[in-house]
Amino acid sequence: MSNGKTVLITGASSGIGEALAERFADDRYELVLTARSVDKLQGLASRLTSQYGLVARVIPADLEAPDGAKALFDEVKRQNLTIDALVNNAGFGLQGAFAELDLEGQLRIMQLNMSALVALTKLFLSDLIARKGKLLNVASTAAFQPGPNMAIYCATKAFVLSFSEAIAEELADTGVTVTALCPGPTATGFADRAGAGEIMLFKVMTPMTSEAVAKIGYAGFKQGRRVVIAGALNWLMAQSIRFAPRRLATVIAKRVMSA
Fold first, then answer.
1. CA pair distance 40, 22, nearest whole angstrom
2. Residues belonging to the active site
3. In a domain, 1, yes or no
4. Is residue 23 part of a domain?
5. Parts of the chain with a pLDDT under 70
6. Looking at residue 83, which CATH number applies to its domain?
7. Residue 151 near residue 192, CB atoms below 8 Å
């Protein structure tokens, strides 16, 4: 039986998004799943509906398109759905020197990781405030330091973390909680799409599973924590940046983000 609440999850077709959908379904949320991969979304929706006896809707969306967030919002409203929780999970990166990567790809990262996230947050915020809802933005441990060879990706995740913490304080008296989930290396399709499968970071650290990240992130989300770093080692590394000279942290980041 549903708990009477509905969650919208972006980037839900695989990886952390799919694992978070499982967590929400287990907690009896009805689901609105969105991504570009329609077949994967429909397969996930069918499985979760069968397993949990809940309604899982699929609304395909291309959030890399400038009008993608507004189109998704309009479709949610057209279907008369009210969102109690919003999970901004969709995102990607590209590995390589900024000077060598194409401009279009970098701008698409910024559009998906930042612009679409901000637009969806703004568009759904009145619903969240009215229902004392909850917001989960997926950032990264990459948010804690500059990232040479993944410069734009790390900068976008720093934006997500800063934005999330700022609006969490703005909304503190509304009943709305805002959580930034910061995973480290995770076994998803992210590295393959980013061309980062051979970088040192993925060789020196054992990636966490999407399921482990989602479990930690969901627990923090339920508690209303503002920042959740998944994994003790990731937490330690993120905290250590605070005490290292920024130039040194940047040099180290360049090494671990190189093949």
1. 14
2. 153
3. no
4. yes
5. 189-205, 240, 243-245, 247-249, 251-259
6. 3.40.50.720
7. no
Token pair, residue 129, equals 């405030």
Which residue range is the domain that position 187 belongs to? 6-256
161 occurs within a structural domain: yes
What is the rounded distance in angstroms from the CA atom of residue 47 to the CA atom of residue 70? 28
Tell me how far the alpha carbon of residue 200 is from its chain's centroid: 23
Supply 253's token pair.
């980041």
pLDDT at 194: 52
CB 159 within 8 A of CB 182: no
The one-letter amino acid code at 200 reads M
Query: In terms of residues, how long is the chain?
Result: 259
> How many domains would you assign to the chain?
1
What pLDDT does residue 225 have?
98
Residue 133, phi then psi, degrees to nearest 5 = -85, -165
Three-state SS string over 98-127 comes to CCCCCHHHHHHHHHHHHHHHHHHHHHHHHH
CA 120 to chain centre: 13
How confident is the model over 201-243, as pLDDT tens digits?
655 567 889 999 999 999 999 999 999 999 888 777 777 677 5
Provide the 8-state DSSP code for 79.
Answer: T
Question: Residue 244: its pLDDT value, please?
Answer: 59
Q: What is the pLDDT of residue 237?
A: 75
135 vs 128: CA distance, rounded Å: 8
For the chain, the C-alpha Rg in angstroms (whole number) is 18
